Amino acid sequence: MAKVEQRASLPKSDLHDVLREMLLIRRFEEKVEERFRAGELPGFLHVAIGQEACAVGVCRALEDGDVIASTHRAHGHTLAKGTHPNELMAELYGKQEGCSHGYGGSMHLYDVERGNLGANAVVGGGLPQITGAALAFKLRGEPRVALAFFGDGATNIGTFHEALNLAQLWRVPAVFVLEDNKWAESTPESQHSPIRDLSERAKAFGMKTLKADGQDVETVYKTARKALDQARRGDGPVFVHLETIRFTGHYIGDPQVYRDRDEVRKLRQERDPIELLRGKLEVSDEDYAALDAEVSEIVEASVEFAKAGTDPAPEDALKNIYA
Amino acid sequence: MAKVEQRASLPKSDLHDVLREMLLIRRFEEKVEERFRAGELPGFLHVAIGQEACAVGVCRALEDGDVIASTHRAHGHTLAKGTHPNELMAELYGKQEGCSHGYGGSMHLYDVERGNLGANAVVGGGLPQITGAALAFKLRGEPRVALAFFGDGATNIGTFHEALNLAQLWRVPAVFVLEDNKWAESTPESQHSPIRDLSERAKAFGMKTLKADGQDVETVYKTARKALDQARRGDGPVFVHLETIRFTGHYIGDPQVYRDRDEVRKLRQERDPIELLRGKLEVSDEDYAALDAEVSEIVEASVEFAKAGTDPAPEDALKNIYA
Amino acid sequence: MPELTYREAVRDALARAMRQDDDVFIMGEDIAEMGGSMGVTAGMLDEFGPERVRNTPISEMALAGAAIGAAVQGMRPVAEIMYEDFLTLAAEQIVNQAAKHRYMSGGQVTVPVVFRTQGGAGWSPGAQHAQQLEAWFVHIPGLKVVFASTPEDVRGLLWSAIYDDNPVVFFEHRTLYPIKGDVPQEIEAIPIGKARVHREGEDVTVIATGRLVHESLQAAEEAERDGISVEVVDPRTLQPLDEETLVSSVKKTNRAVVAHEAVTRMGFGAEVASVLQYQAFDWLDAPIERVGAKFSPLPFAPVMEAFVVPHAEDVLAAVKRTVGKA
Amino acid sequence: MPELTYREAVRDALARAMRQDDDVFIMGEDIAEMGGSMGVTAGMLDEFGPERVRNTPISEMALAGAAIGAAVQGMRPVAEIMYEDFLTLAAEQIVNQAAKHRYMSGGQVTVPVVFRTQGGAGWSPGAQHAQQLEAWFVHIPGLKVVFASTPEDVRGLLWSAIYDDNPVVFFEHRTLYPIKGDVPQEIEAIPIGKARVHREGEDVTVIATGRLVHESLQAAEEAERDGISVEVVDPRTLQPLDEETLVSSVKKTNRAVVAHEAVTRMGFGAEVASVLQYQAFDWLDAPIERVGAKFSPLPFAPVMEAFVVPHAEDVLAAVKRTVGKA
Ligand SMILES: Cc1ncc(C[n+]2csc(CCOP(=O)(O)OP(=O)(O)O)c2C)c(N)n1
Ligand SMILES: Cc1ncc(C[n+]2csc(CCOP(=O)(O)OP(=O)(O)O)c2C)c(N)n1
Ligand SMILES: [Mg+2]
Ligand SMILES: [Mg+2]
Questions:
Q1: Ligand 2: which residues within 6 Å by Cβ?
Q2: Going residue by residue through chain D (326 aa), what tens digit of pLDDT does each one get?
Q3: Per annotation, catalytic residue among D129, D214, D260, D311
Q4: Contact A242, A148 (CB under 8 A)
Q5: Pairing of strands C289-293, C256-263
Q6: Terminal CA-to-CA distance of chain A, rounded, Å?
Q7: Which of D61, D80, D82, D83 has most ligand 2 atoms within 8 Å of CB, for mutation?
């Protein structure tokens, strides 16, 4: 997951790397589902299968020093921002070696060294803090950008509106990335928003908006780059609207009684971001199998790593409460 | 303050009544300022001098059974919605005869019988409740509308966005009236909103918006009527954007160090809603003086009434906590 | 006597009220097709339709406020806040609006709204999905606060809450949803403000709420083996508080333990202990013990989580301390 | 020793920190040109400019969150919430975010933010502008909570709060702004977690916060005329709590009164009483008295308002009860 050089679009060699990264996330998420079902993983888990291009395309576009805030659906963002699968898996197993040292869990993944300020289990909770981080960058004259991920459901909560308003008013270097998968848990967009184009909500603050197909990682990358450039230049925050698809349930185990299975199947066949890129790159079956084997091994190794990790001592619970 | 018949615009005879009502509010507010400065009124007081046309124009357009929620700047709304000046003044003096029986005060004026669900001292606090009242009307199939007043400052708080979103999503019979006086306390609109046309914030929810000159009471009336008609018809909520002017400080006693005095003086000269209507109706100086004397007497009497009112017993504080 | 789970008991109260009364409706995030994140309202959409089983967008403030607004118009809405942690988002409406309208209007307004919510540790949800915040609402005059621990209680108390003319914050505990218990054939209102003595005893009174009621009953059994006779009382409603039952129990046993899952510091147990030391001062033979979560956010890793929140053994240890057998 | 008002003392701490440290800045509604609704930040815009004295829109949630976000990046923001009542709007960010980031990240994140706020009755603001909500935040691990009662304390404690690496909720009381007191020439940090003994006494300990410190000192003088010697202690920081000072005072006097303006039920006094009865059980000669607001929202009419909140006479009456002279 090396950082690419800064440019407006990705060369083909990088795209192979991108494919690998997306596949790694996919296999990681599938493994998480499997291990959860096997009863090995505690807590509440949300995978981002189908949304890999958003995480990878956006995070590739970031520069060192940029920071992100993530959501309850955080594994992809976390891997894409550079956390090693071992550390992520270890966290899901509640181990000291985890990226939050066992204190956080799936909904609270942090990796501050790599600019991941934390996943947030409160919908919208991270947004004003991204405004604030960007404010700090602006006050100190640092050429850094703060970026928040969030879902379509999050555009209904007051926090979202307040955070965007403040960011635009103060013209801080922030980017707000909507991963619009058209669902908030079981609630379809038509039941949670009276408008069909959620970009309108950012325009209401005069914020520049960019829209992109969230299944096309190249487009995502280019769009994010553009947004980050504007923000970094000091031209104010940008709202990036990515249309994407949640291929699975809201949480692992969700029976999805509310959703048309055929439609999901069809979307999976036609709009899989990994398959789309693979087709574009014309990766042979053989090469793909080799890639798959490679990332699957990394994922498998992460499980081994996690299982061999150290359980915190019970009393460790009383550490890290205060600085 | 008799209710007019339902029609799209006001006949001249009604306009005289409207003038009288606006002047009554003006004199009432001036009296409140005077009595506050004399040390007679406890608490925290905000007058609406300059904004009389908004209160009167909108409330005239309401029908029996409609309900309103007001703000910290509530005297005008309360009078326009039919509360007798005596009851309002008595409340400001903390008397049992007051419209909230001495429990509420200036920022918590209620008159439920007349459809006033209460002033609210929390900016934005009343808005979701208006959505909820309108929902009740819709669920019960009643041809009633719920209407919220609020200021430009209130359009920044999450509550506002959540309440409008819900109202539009559910297409409830609600009307949201923005009294845009361009100030939130000492903060000019340019310092609290990145956009210049606050209607955009309602459009972001797909809500129908109507804009009007809030100093022209006829226009206000017609606009409110239109909004109420649409809401009552079941065509969903409407956002009414009234541009208005706060002629005084934010609160009584505000030295307004942040504001250009000459500009205020000019606005007062040119844009006084009462003077504008008086000019339009060509009221002679004599008639105007008579009108003024009449309303001033009512206001004076309200002070007498209030002062002669009954102080609650201390232990009354423990009543009305639970039903 | 039919047997219901705690989950079914909640649903039964909601459904019966909705059947008998058009003014009652429910609203919340994902309560319709999905039946709520805990499955409490499963099936209700089919029976009552989307107007009365209203999915809301993610906007806790507006959904709480809309429920209040509808209640003021005479409806009896039951609004679900998916996790107690999100009460922090609706607090303004509950605390400044629902609790105070009646008062500020000098008695003109009635606000018959229920805010149902749930929380609780024991399944590693992490720090933002399992707080126990009931104490906050006990501090707010104008609200009633209920926290039921059994299927019978949760059904009868929810019924009372729905028909109460005041705003009620109604706490459920996630780990209790599957527990079973007998309930009367016909629904019976359980009065708000009456504690329940779950078990009589002579030596120590344990006053417990929510999950800790069950932990305390278990601790009581274990204590009995050591010859300690424990009375277990569940206040059930935290506001109003049935001080009389609590105090008279302690006057009998002369010792008290207060147990809840919430953080001990400034938790509901502090209020109970303060009331008891005041009203039963001369009867107390030992300091009142408080059992609650340690002073920490909830950690994710199961071993740490289990360490932070209290269990039967913590109640037992406290019981033993009060009788000097620690 | 210069004399400052409580208001000036707050301003002095802010201004000195901003002069010495570029990372410190203040934000809040109307804090710039207007100097805040209580005039606390008057004149600061001129000295520090609008980037560091930031007016915000009316959006308590975002302003709290933005302060947190900037703090995580190493700034030391002081965010003003105009009235405590509006903490209900920022509660999510303070409680779920600021308080828990460090913990949930396993120690990676530091959140050196201060939330200044004020409230208090005595001027008929009505029910939504004078609540005292400090107890809520004492219940939340990860936060520190300060409530200072004198110019010297408020300055030294605010200084400590600004330089503390944890989120601090800092309560001021509206009616204290004009009171005057001596402060050291050079600013001295007052450690968070140390109570202050305002007055030594032998018969009863009164533990008071905020405005009630002054009422209690007055009550103590009146009690003295009746031959009752009262010790008055101000914890000053409610979280962490200096239990040692409180407990050792009560072990000396054998009687305790806890006094604050907040509603008694579930107020901070409940926690103090619980700690005292536990740690000083064998020393207590009388039940611990709690003095606080009656169980009611704040009414508007001055006579009712005065009835609801406690005054020196209420403290005095409680003191007398503890010594059996009621
Ligand atoms: C404030 C808040 N309310 C409710 C929830 C419960 N919840 C968790 S995820 C979710 C849906 C979020 O939808 P969206 O923002 O579209 O993200 P997605 O799950 O689609 O990635 C809800 C309601 C929450 N975590 N926070
Ligand atoms: C949530 C909240 N934050 C802050 C305040 C303090 N406050 C009272 S009025 C006001 C300004 C309101 O501005 P606007 O909405 O434009 O109404 P106007 O005063 O102009 O009528 C503020 C900040 C409040 N009452 N509620
Ligand atoms: Mg979504
Ligand atoms: Mg305004």
A1: B 72-73, 121-123, 150-154, 157, 181, 183-185, 246, 250; D 29, 58, 60, 82, 86, 89
A2: 799 999 999 999 999 999 999 999 999 999 999 999 999 999 999 999 999 999 999 999 999 999 999 999 999 999 999 999 999 999 999 999 999 999 999 999 999 999 999 999 999 999 999 999 999 999 999 999 999 999 999 999 999 999 999 999 999 999 999 999 999 999 999 999 999 999 999 999 999 999 999 999 999 999 999 999 999 999 999 999 999 999 999 999 999 999 999 999 999 999 999 999 999 999 999 999 999 999 999 999 999 999 999 999 999 999 999 999 87
A3: D129
A4: no
A5: parallel
A6: 32
A7: D82
Q: Is C242 in the pocket of ligand 1 (CB under 6 A)?
A: no
Of D60, D134, D261, D289, catalytic: D60
- Inter-residue contact D166 to D113 (CB < 8 Å): no
Specify the pairing of strand C53-55 against strand C24-28.
Answer: parallel
Instruction: Give the 3-state secondary structure of residue A231.
Output: helix
Separation between Cα atoms, residue C223 and residue C320, nearest integer Å: 8
Q: Specify the residue for token string 């907040």.
A: D262
CA C300 to each of CA A96, A109, C80, C253: distance values in angstroms, whole numbers, following the listed order: 11, 11, 25, 38
Q: Are B198 and B180 in contact (CB under 8 A)?
A: yes
The DSSP bridge partners found for residue A209 are: A239
The pair of three-digit structure tokens given for residue B66, joined into one six-digit string: 């409609």
Classified as helix, coil or strand, D98 is helix
Largest CA distance in chain C: 59
Place of tokens 């209401």: A204
Closest chain D C-alpha to B320 CA, distance in angstroms: 9
DSSP tag of D305: H
Choosing from C29, C80, C101, C129, the catalytic residue is C129
Letter for the amino acid at D128?
Q
The answer to whether the CB of A177 falls within 8 A of the CB of A150 is: yes
Structure tokens at B296: 């001033």
Tokens 């499980």: give the residue. A303
Q: Which residue has the tokens 């009589």?
A: C200
The residues that bridge with C233 in the sheet, in sequence order, are: C197, C207
Distance from the Cα of D59 to chain B's closest Cα (Å) equals 5
Nearest residue of C to residue D280, measured between CA atoms: C287
- List the beta strands (DSSP E) in chain B: 67-69, 146-151, 174-180, 183-184, 187-188, 208-213, 238-243
Question: Are the C-beta atoms of D104 and A110 separated by less than 8 Å?
Answer: yes
Mutate to test the pocket of ligand 2, among B44, B123, B192 (most ligand atoms within 8 A of CB): B123
Nearest CA, atom 11, ligand 1 = A184
Provide the 3-class DSSP secondary structure of residue D146: strand
- Considering only CA atoms, which of B289, B312, B313, B309 is closest in space to residue B301? B309
- Find where tokens 């009235």 sit: D83
Which tokens go with C44? 């209700």
